[in-house]
Amino acid sequence: MTTMINWLEKRADLSPNTDAVKLSDGTTYSFSELYHHARSMALQLKQEGIKSGDHVSVISPNHYRFLVTIHALNLIGAVSFLMNIRLSSAEIAFQLQDGDVSAVILDQRYENLVGDDLNVIDIHSGNLDQPLEQKSHSMDLDDLSHVIYTSGTTGQPKGVELTYGNHWWNANGSALNLGLYAHDRWLLSLPMFHVGGLSIVYRSVIYGIPLHLHESFDVEAIHDDIMNQGVTIMSVVSVMLDQLLERLGNDYYPEQFRCMLLGGGPAPKPLLTRARDKHVPVYQTYGMTETASQFCTLDDQNAFDKLGAAGKPLFPNQLDIVQDDESLPAQQVGEIVVHGPSVTKGYYKRPDETADKLQNGWLKTGDLGYFDKDGFLYVVDRRKDLIISGGENVYPAEIESVLKGHPHIADAGVVGQKNERWGEVPVAFIVEREPVDEQELTTYCQNHLANYKVPKTWYKTDELPRNAAKKLLRHQLQARLEE
């Protein structure tokens, strides 16, 4: 057991007057103010019946109250289930039930996503400036802080268990790799319900640096923030970087902007070349929900020399490339396996999947990659059949499961198709039981899936390619797209 004082409480004591948050409208809050607001929110939530150990869902877009809520739940000791606001009500319902959630804190714009059988709390209610007595809060690094769901290869999402220790080591590993400066400011436009956005929340408090909070990815607002407001670091996925480079045009970012942290899947080489030509310091990174965000990241000495590499494992992480449980030499492609204190301890209520994926402390990622002669990781393929669309993970099996529930569809197969804007988009091959209109299929999927998971093109076929064991051969469907 390793216990330490709550991070926000400690930061408010060390740096009470330092800016903690800067909103896109220019409003700023100090660490002292953020801590007071989080304690006020925690008091309100306790009055609503939330206590230590409770499973509490948060359904909200990025805004200041969402940030305060994350810290408030930490102060209470509740386990946060942060929900993707782009999910359908059916997907939300599954996660709430699977996660044994007892209360939901939400932005009222999303109240239609949950039923009335839970304790539902408006995230915007309550006074954040209540008079409070001084009280100290502690945390155990082995305790669960969050359960974040990722799409499952079997069609059902699974909850990744993340501890305070996972976040602590991820933040420390990132700082030891990227460095830390007194003038650093980290721009946050990734959703805080994604591990990439959530990790910035904790880095800000642990490092004592401001985060610039944006509700969404607004190119103009973000461009202005980088150019004129002292931002030094930003986390992006490829589609965001592409739009920012286009907006930058013939201009250049200020000298203090030192890191464009690029994740969400391998980036196209032409995009990296454009960034290099514009002197934009892109640091590619490799990570996942199961590693509390970054696991490998390029450093400043190699950002331009190792184009396409995801760097080396952060301190004190380990990474290996294996095949049949044997380590492979440089330049040979195999499965990426990872080990370290930022790696999840398992999947919520999934002992079999946990045992299969986590062996002797090593997590089998299912991703393929190789080391170059200097030990830098190159990711050549993503988890088998995974589609990454605009930084969002899309598993074909989940979409196929929904499609097969339609009475007029006998069989379905989903693969990713290259797309200039989003990297990839899902497309579906269907075998009809009875004739069905494509618009009807689109509407049907929109009622069951997040919009980014809805197939963008439909291909009708007499049968799908399967092997003797009746396993769908998706690579043959992929080949059809390229014919």
From TrEMBL:
Its EC number is 6.2.1.26. Pathway: Quinol/quinone metabolism; menaquinone biosynthesis; Quinol/quinone metabolism; 1,4-dihydroxy-2-naphthoate biosynthesis; 1,4-dihydroxy-2-naphthoate from chorismate: step 5/7. It is an enzyme of class 6 (ligase). It catalyses: 2-succinylbenzoate + ATP + CoA = 2-succinylbenzoyl-CoA + AMP + diphosphate. Residues 398-471 form the AMP-binding enzyme C-terminal domain. The keyword Nucleotide-binding applies. PROSITE patterns: AMP_BINDING. Residues 8-348 form the AMP-dependent synthetase/ligase domain. Keywords: ATP-binding, Ligase, Menaquinone biosynthesis, Nucleotide-binding. InterPro entries: AMP-bd_C (IPR025110), AMP-bd_C_sf (IPR045851), AMP-binding_CS (IPR020845), AMP-dep_synth/lig_dom (IPR000873), ANL_N_sf (IPR042099), ATP-dep_AMP-bd_enzyme (IPR050237), MenE (IPR010192). It comes from the Bacteria. One of its GO terms (molecular function) is o-succinylbenzoate-CoA ligase activity. Pfam families: AMP-binding, AMP-binding_C. Converts 2-succinylbenzoate (OSB) to 2-succinylbenzoyl-CoA (OSB-CoA). Belongs to the ATP-dependent AMP-binding enzyme family. MenE subfamily. This is 2-succinylbenzoate--CoA ligase. It comes from Alkalibacillus salilacus.
